[in-house]
């Protein structure tokens, strides 16, 4: 059986993170063999009650990282997974795990894997945009 090497890295990919937000891999390198599951884990801290957690895979500098999955944590429970038969994810209030299923682990899985956290902005229900067009498509002007 071939040995497959996986690198876990961390990323604060998204703007809007506060000073209390951080994410880091529990181990820098994980290896496994064909036919066995491999689990990567990152620990995160955020002040957000509704953070989004992301996993990406990056094969080389010649291509952009590939999206694997997005998962809500803490008070959110949704998951968007690019390939549900291949990847599984578990989250807690402080960590996220990505499992590459044992039946499909192969040399092509050798890559750098990124975990990322993004706090979700909530609570602002006021209008952020005001339409300055009337119903007949003429511009409305404010008169001071």
UniProtKB/TrEMBL annotation:
InterPro entries listed in its UniProt record: Ig-like_dom (IPR007110), Ig-like_dom_sf (IPR036179), Ig-like_fold (IPR013783), Ig_sub (IPR003599), Ig_V-set (IPR013106), TCR_variable_region (IPR051287)
GO cellular component labels: T cell receptor complex
Keyword Oxidoreductase: no
Keyword Signal: yes
Pfam families per the UniProt record, alphabetical: V-set
Signal peptide: 1-20
Domain called Ig-like: residue spans: 15-126
Keywords linked to the UniProt accession: Adaptive immunity, Immunity, Immunoglobulin domain, Receptor, Signal, T cell receptor
Membrane-traversing stretches: none
Name listed for the protein in its UniProt record: Ig-like domain-containing protein
Organism listed in the record: Lates calcarifer
């Amino acid at each position: 059986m071939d040995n497959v090497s996986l690198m876990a890295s961390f990323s604060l990919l998204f703007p809007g993170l506060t000073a209390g937000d951080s994410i880091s891999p529990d181990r820098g390198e994980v290896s496994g063999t064909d036919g066995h599951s491999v689990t990567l884990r990152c620990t995160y801290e955020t002040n957000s009650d509704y953070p989004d957690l992301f996993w990406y895979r990056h094969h080389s500098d010649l291509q952009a990282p590939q999206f694997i999955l997005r998962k809500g944590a803490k008070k959110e429970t949704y998951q968007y997974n690019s390939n549900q038969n291949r990847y599984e994810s578990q989250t807690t209030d402080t960590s996220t795990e990505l499992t590459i299923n044992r039946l499909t682990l192969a040399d092509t899985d050798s890559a750098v894997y990124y975990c990322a956290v993004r706090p979700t902005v909530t609570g602002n229900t006021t209008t952020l945009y005001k339409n300055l067009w009337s119903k007949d498509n003429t511009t409305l002007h404010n008169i001071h």
